Structures are given as C-alpha cells and as structure tokens.
C-alpha cells in the first residue's frame, strides 16, 4: 500500500463559505464534485474540526468560490491554515454576497461561484459530506484557469494542512519553523529542510529563508 | 444561473470496476475524492443506470484505476460510452487483479490504483455515492500525468455522456451522426456541427469527417 496514490486523484481549490446570524464563515477545501444534474446537486467534504463545519450544519446552506490560478497566496493561507475561532478571516478581503442566498462569495479571486441549500449530510469519520442543491451558479471569467490542487502544490509549492482529507500521515521527525513575518508556524509532515527552495509561506508568501527554527 | 459553472470543478478520469460471481464489471467516472485519512476512505459517484452500479452494491467492493494522459481513447470509449448490458467491455483489454481484493485493475493505462471495501452508500437522486475503505493502493508511474477531465475535454475533445454527473442539459436541435467505422451514434447535446474540427470518435478515435448523418 503506497499512500502517495491518494495524490493522484484530481482536485480543485475552493473557498467553502456560509453565513450564520449575519456573520460570514469560510475555509479552504479541495473536495467538491457534481452528483446530479436535475436538480443540480454537488457534494463537498469538510473536516468536522473546521469552525465552518458546524456553521454550515446550522445555516443549512453553503457556497463555493472556485479559485483561479491567480488567486492570492494570502487568501488561501488565511482561509486554509487558520481557524475562524482565532482570527476574523474576512477582515482583510473583499467579498460579495450571492444574489440568491446572500452567501459570501470571493468573486474577485474566482472563476465560478455556487450557492447551495444543504439537502443532506453524511458523517464519515473525521469528515462530513455535505450535499447541496445548487440554487445559483455563475461563471466569472473565461480567460482564467481554475486552480487545481496539483497547481497549488507543484507551482505554489504548498502542503496540505493536517485536517485536509488529502493530508497523509508520515513518520514525524522534525523541528518546527516559524515565519519571521507573519508568525505562521510550519508544522506539517514534510520536513522543513525537504521543502523546495522556492517554497513560500502559505499565509503571507514569505520566502523559505525568512523562517526560523522555534 | 449559468450551468457552465459546473465545468469549473476539477476532476480526474477513472475506470471504476468491481467483480461479482467471477465476472468483471466497469465504467468510466470522473467523480472521486478522498474523505478521511485514518482509516483511508474515498467517495465516488456513480449513475444508478450504470450496469456497474448494482454490481458494486452487491459485491460490496470497488476499485479505481486512475488513467494517465496517455490512456487509449479506445479504452475510455468502450468503458465510458457503452453498457456492459450490451457488450463485453473487458474482452479486448489487458487487466490485472488486485493483490488484496482481486478486483480488476488497468495497470498498463493507470498512474495509480485503489482497491476498496464498500462501507456506505448514499442515494442522491439519479446517482449513488459509494464510500469505500481503501484496502490497498499503489502508484504505478511517477513519470506520467494523471488524466484530468479538463485534458480529456480540451485535448482529447471529448464530450460527457448523458449519464455523467457533469452532463449539462441544453436545448436540443440536432441531427444524429454515426461513426462509419465503429457505428457509435453521436447523440450528445453539443450539436455535431459545433464540435471542433479535431474532435474524434470517443469509441474508436475516428476523425469527424468519418461520421455520417443518420
């Protein structure tokens, strides 16, 4: 059994959002697929640990912003490597509200958006599959490419956070490294020394040499 | 609402297989994602109309062969645009049996393979989401690229068959065209005249000029 096979499944990169009591919530996911076309329904997978998870369960709706290859590393870092329990993720980013469900959408960073009503949830261990009926969806650009998970890893040199479905457990043998600019602590399973030279901080985009051993 | 947004979700191309009473069954899917890592579980979506669908429900196991960019058009055509009710899909193709569950795997055409025990099924309208615990998985090549749905459409010039989750209903206004070589009838919703000049038969790879109006 070679767990690297899991990296051969193809994914995009999305901001999964919802809104509850007037407040926006969101996180990065890479797992989304269409299930049926009439009515149009999509499935997404979300870690139960994510702050956004319970908000979707309660709000009974969610939105997807399909990021482009030009999407900022900063947005992905903030929404993918931080928790809404600790910071206000939306503070520094422009977002709009969808026409149908008023859900937060990152139209400036996206190639397409979806607004969905939650129709079913299926718990599978650490994660929940949310199934949504698509109430509205739009294409925002025909000139950009959607960001794929492969592009995110190979071109942006990013690594999966621990609560991603695609996170792979490997033997731990490493020191922790902290970004001297934004204080993000690199604590993933690819040893810091083995990250490529052009790897950058997933939160602020700082180069590798700006990290310090903690 | 612009349904073309659904084409901005990222997918791979897979042969989904199973085995029941000693016979292999299989079809092409583009919907697969990892859900959890401990235990490793993946989800796939399959149209209930597919012959393979009920066989998976009964066999309680399934396998995925992750196709490469070099995978033959012929294999994809046979497994994606035909039914096992009508033809013996496996007759003309080399396949192996997985080490753990003896499931059919297309190792020559794949970059990775997975063998899964079915642990849960969730019906969603026309489709079922099958959730499998991965019993074995392997990487077969580090030099090839996995075929993405985008590559399949943009480079191979293919169109989604009607029972694919990503099939989009559009207004019908067209004649039917038949491949003069393999007799495949083109009956999809993109009008035949609007297919690009380098489009080829999804079954046998014949060029567009070899099609005749029926």
TrEMBL record, chains A, B:
UniProt cross-references to Pfam families, sorted A to Z: Flavin_Reduct, Rubredoxin
Keyword Oxidoreductase annotated: yes
Rubredoxin-like domain span: 174-214
Molecular function (Gene Ontology), one example: iron ion binding
Superkingdom to which the source organism belongs: Bacteria
Keyword vocabulary terms for this entry: Electron transport, Iron, Metal-binding, Oxidoreductase, Transport
The protein's name: Rubredoxin-like domain-containing protein
Source species taxonomy: Bacteria, Pseudomonadati, Spirochaetota, Spirochaetia, Spirochaetales
